[in-house]
Amino acid sequence: MKMVVAIIKPFKLDEVREALSTIGVQGITVTEVKGFGRQKGHTELYRGAEYVVDFLPKVKLEAAVKSDMLDQVLEAIVKAANTGKIGDGKIFVSDLEQVIRIRTGESGADAL
Amino acid sequence: MRKLFLFFAMMTVLFGLSMPVYADDAAPAAAVTAAAEPAAPAAAPAPVPNKGDTAWMLVATLLVIMMSIPGLALFYGGLVRSKNMLSVLMQVFTIFALITVLWVIYGYSLAFTQGNAFIGGFDRLFLNGIFDPATGSVANAATFSKGVYIPEFVFVAFQATFAAITVALIVGAFAERMKFSAVLLFAALWFTFAYLPMAHMVWFWPGPDAFTDADAGAAAVAASGWLFQKGALDFAGGTVVHINAGVAGLVGAYLIGKRIGYGKEPMTPHSLTMTMIGASLLWVGWFGFNAGSALEAGGTAALAFMNTLSATAAAVLTWTLAEWVLKGKPSMLGAASGAVAGLVAITPACGWVGVGGGLVIGGLAGVVCFWGVTGLKKLLGVDDALDVFGIHAIGGILGALLTGVFNTWSMGGTGIIDYVNNTIVDTTISSQLWIQTQAVLTAVIWSGVVAFICYKVIDLTIGLRVPEEAEREGLDTTTHGERAYSM
Predict the structure, then answer these.
(1) Which residues contact A17 (CB under 8 A, 6 or more apart)?
(2) Which of A7, B31, B270, B455 has its CA 20 to 30 A from that of B110?
């Protein structure tokens, strides 16, 4: 099992969710986050007072998937979240040791 | 222990000032129109106010209340960081209540009864003599037309809302760092020693009925406030309200000092949506403020209404354009600030200038106040947090001076009323501009000096500023024990 964490542009969330549903991902968790990468921040101006905003709003989505689905999942996210412009985000993949469905107590791949 | 002391101090202020009332209760009641009464036939029945005028003035009063709460409170609240949202709302809310009570106890009397040229008398302490329980009748207050009156309670309430919003305006300058107790104490002191004298100087007169002939007219003028005698034109409060509050704000921001992290940490507005709602409520409420200052529902009110609409619209456009050209982007905060700047500048002028003059005043206000909150603010180097000086004092000064320019007939203005001969006469720009300048200088100096002393007295007694830790954490939790948003 693999844990896929993707940081994407907020307005791409719906497309990514749809793409993941289409290939059979059963569930994802989404968080509104802030951060910076190569895109850097922007400046905001309030009555002439200028502020550099370093952290931009992004969406972090987490999906636990079976190992054999990984390539499909990565491809779906990359395709749906891509705009070709700087700041599209990143995907982090790591091994997942254990999953447990709280309601039934199922564990491992059955719980995904 | 300190809190207890504070409580007693405030009670002493409240009751100390109200004590002499009982001694004065027996004094003969003199209405605002008192000076006119000896000349009127003794047997004539009391005139009945027009119901249309009365109804309009009741509505106008409500509109001005809406300007303060929630209008001004939300306008300011949206501009501070979320950790200080409630402190701003609370300051505006309680100042509104405090000033209203003080107005009833002694404020109205000191502002709007006959005394000397600088301050009124004590005839109306506790609104004494307005309501006659024996006959169930309410005294009349003069308007700007002979033989036209409104119930005096309506005038008292209308003017109470002016006093309250003026003091509440100052809050923006020292937002996010002043002690709540100091805010309240300052409000009471400044109201007493700056607002009441200015209102009396600019607005008190014995009413039009006193001008029966040249001699009576001269006597009536001599009994009026100092700036009224000079012929200063301030229709709805450019000097009394805006310059007055703006200067007090600047002095306060200077004496209290900058917010921790000012210029280093971001201090961005936490909700410009709230600010936009607040600015819109201010604009709508301002029709009561300006058109209501005619004290009647008639042509002058309509002119003031029209100017409040069009001059403000012009200011929104010029501020937005200036910001777009000079800073790159047209912002919502800019448009909302432009509206307030236009409203401030047209306030002294709205019943005295034509619509063309109003458009020019509004248009200029948008640009000049934009400079007030950017270029001038940098020059002053004072952390006037929500730009009370840059918008209210600068806009007020601009409006007060331009009233002297656009009042003359050749500029499309109304001229002024000669109550002795019952005609309208023209003004000349040069002499009226000089009179307006004197009114502006009086407001700036009077308010500045009084505010300075008030802040110093508070600083030396209970202190002006919250502890550093409280300021960092935010005034909402540390002063008021609650949060605006629970997420």
Answers:
(1) A28, A61
(2) B455
